[in-house]
Every structure is written in structure tokens, then in C-alpha cells.
Amino acid sequence: MKPRTAVNSNPFDSEKGPEKSGVKILAGDPKKAIIKLSVPMIVAMSVQTIYQLVDTYWVSGLGADALAAMGFVFPFFFISMALSNGLGIGGGSAISRRIGARDKTGADNVAVHTIIMMLLLVLIFTIPFYIFAPQIFSLVGAGRTTDLAVAYARVIFLGSLVVFFTNVANAILRAEGDSKRAMQAMVLGAALNIVLDPIFIYTFNMGIAGAAWATLLSLAVSSLMMLNWLFFRKDTFVSFDFEGFSFERDIVNDIFRITIPASAQQLSMSLSMLILNLIIVNVSNTDGVAVYSTGWRVATIAIAPLVGIATAVVSVSGAAFGAREFEKAETAHTYAIKLGLLIESLVAAFTFIFAPQIAAVFTQTEEAAHIAPDLIHFLRVICIFYPSVSLGMLSTSFFQGAGKGMSALTANLLRTLVFTPLFAAFFAFTLDMGQVGAWWGIVVGNGMGAGVTFVWARLYLSTILKTGSFNMPLEQGV
Length: 478
Known about the structure:
With 478 residues, the protein is mainly α. The chain has helices spanning 10-13, 20-27, 30-60, 64-100, 104-131, 133-139, 146-158, 160-175, 179-203, 208-233, 249-283, 286-302, 304-322, 326-353, 355-362, 372-382, 386-402, 405-430, 434-467. α9 (179-203) runs antiparallel to α10 (208-233) and α13 runs parallel beside α17. The chain is globular. 58% of the residues are buried.
């Protein structure tokens, strides 16, 4: 790694190059920045979640046991997503703050550190999960679906490098305001997956493992696309110089201050899913897990617009805090919340009205038809919490952009590991409402957690606006 030199303003002042427009967006009107950065990501996340629904649709043709197996695997796939997304958020936040502080050399250095740290995480994740997959799924209650779960999971674990690189590279592009190319890579991968799913599952007669192979090959295409932009065409704002690389403690600490809480936050969601699976199995059976996992995939597409807005909030608030323009950060947070509430209220109404038609898509086969009534009920209950998600998710992203990862993590842990499991167990067991009680527990727990996170974010904003300063995780020389 070359030694850091004085900041050169030329990369920021120059109008040349396709990478400059994203940086200009980050430095401009925060409302326009939220729209310009979030719209491509909303499209990308919507297409991604549509592919997940298509994935579930094709697997549903294999029966309820196959759907349940996917439900048991999903928390572990979510772990790989949590680690890679967490690292991407940590590196992306640090890059955005350095862009806001006009520190091009620092942004480049963070990008290199992020890629190296990603490679180390892949090794740590892949080996134990691949080797001990049968024992893991037996322990979490997969029962008769254990073999199906192992067949699906081992393919996913084997391709961890592709999963990790896709998420980290995408986060680097978003951090410099290049959400359009981030969208292109995600949309291409999702569209390809939709095409490959039936071919691998049925034409090649690979069953549930075919769905996993279709996912990996699609992500590989997205990865190659971003690999070309970042390392071969080199037309991104950040650049990579691995020659003589050595870890710098300050940069590692800065990335980890966000990465660890962000990853822990998403890992807590995986643990919450595992706990909910156990609650559901105890009050129902594996069919209940099939309902939950299938319905939750529908919920993921419902909140996909929020995920797109959240990625914009991280970048815009990060750049605002890097430039110490706290009013911009407040404007971005407020505007994003209003936008999220409006969108999710409409989505919730649509889901409630068309729940029977949505459920019918996943219960057409004779093997899965018996779960249709329960799936309809789940969809109509769970959509109630969609609007409140915007309060929590977008406030969490605000904290991440500001470099306050522990605040986001603490609020999230209350939601995922305290409120949601507690209320799910209370309604399911204490009030003897069975699996329906678990659905209501999810709604109440998520709603309370989102409210706590929103209030926390507004109090923090109020404090820094009054004092005109905040505790930066790394002063970056400004």
C-alpha cells in the first residue's frame, strides 16, 4: 500500500469521468440525492426479491417439505448475507465519509482494506458451515426435511466467495454514489436466476439443489460485471492498489466500528428466524415453517423499496457527516422516513386485498395446497407492520452513515432478540393462540423495535444540531 499523501482536490473538482456524477449527487441537495440514489436501488431490490419469490414458486412444485427445507436454510444463508452486507456497510460508510471530507486517498485505502477483509471472512464462514451442515440442520429441528436442507445449503456454502464479493462490491459502488451500475449488476443477476431456476430444478432434474446452483451462477455473473468495473476498466471513483498492502489499524477500526454492529444486527435477524422456527414447530409442525418462510419471502418484496431507500440514506448521511453538514443529514432522514411511510402504506393495503391471489401462486401443487389458508392469514397479519418498518430501518441506516453502529445495533437487538421472540412466545404459548400468535408477535415486536430506533435517531439528531458537533469514529484529518 502506498503511503497516504495530502488530499488532492482535483479528483473532486474534475468534471471528467463517469464516476464523478455520483460524488456530485452526494454533495448536493439531500432530498434529490435520496431520490436519485434510492430509485435505482429500489428497482434492483424489487427485482431481487421478485426472483426470491420466483425461486420459492419453483421450489413449491417439489412440495411443502422442500419449502420447509428452504425455510430452515434461509437463516444460514442470511448469515452469509449479514456478514458480507455488514462489511459492505462498514466499508461503504467509511468511504462516503471520506468522500464528504474530500479525502480521495483515504477512500481508496478503505476500499482496498474492505476487499482484503472480505476474503478473510469468506474462509472463516465457508469451511465450518459446509462440513457440519447435517449436524446443524438436525439441531435446528429440520427433522424429515434435513436431507433436503443439506442438499440446498451445501451449494450455497460452497459459493460463499461469490455471495460475499457481490454484496461488498455493490456497497462500494453505492458508497461513491454510483447506484445505477449497482442496480444493473443486481438486476442482471436476478433476471438470470429467474430464467435458470426451472432449468436446473426440473429440466436438469436437480431438485432443490438446482435452485441453489441457479442462485450461485446468477450471482457469479453479477460479480464478474462488478469485478470488471472495479479492477479492469477502473472507471470508478475509488481505485485499488494492492501492491505492498498492509493493514492500517485506524482504517480497520473505522470499518469494524460499523461492520461488527451491522453484521451483528443482521445476524440477530437470523437468530430471530431460528427462534421463530422453533416456536412455530412447537405450536404447529414443519408446515408452519413452510408458511412462515414462504410468507416472509413475500414480506421481503414488500419492504424492498425501504431497502433501496436505506442504502441511499447510508451514503447521503455519511457524506453529510463527513462534511459536517448536519442539517443535510436531518433533511435526508426526515425525507426518507416520509417517503418510506407513504410507499409501505400502499404496499400493505395491496397485500391485504390480494393475499388470496398471492398465496395461490405458491400453493398450486397438490403437495402444497393444504397450507393455502394459513398462508393467506399470515400475509394479512404481517402486512400490518410494513409501514412501521420504515421508522426502524431508515433510522438504522442513518446511524450507520453517521458512524454510530452501536446505536443501530442496540436498538435492533431489542427488536429481533427481545421484543419479537418475546411477544411471539407470549401470544403463541401464554395466550394459546398457536402459530397465529407467532404472526402477531412478529407484528408487535417489530413495531415496538422500530419506534424505539426512530425516537433514538431523532434525539441524536437534536443533540448534534444544538451542539454543532458529534463524536466521529475517525476524524479523518478534518
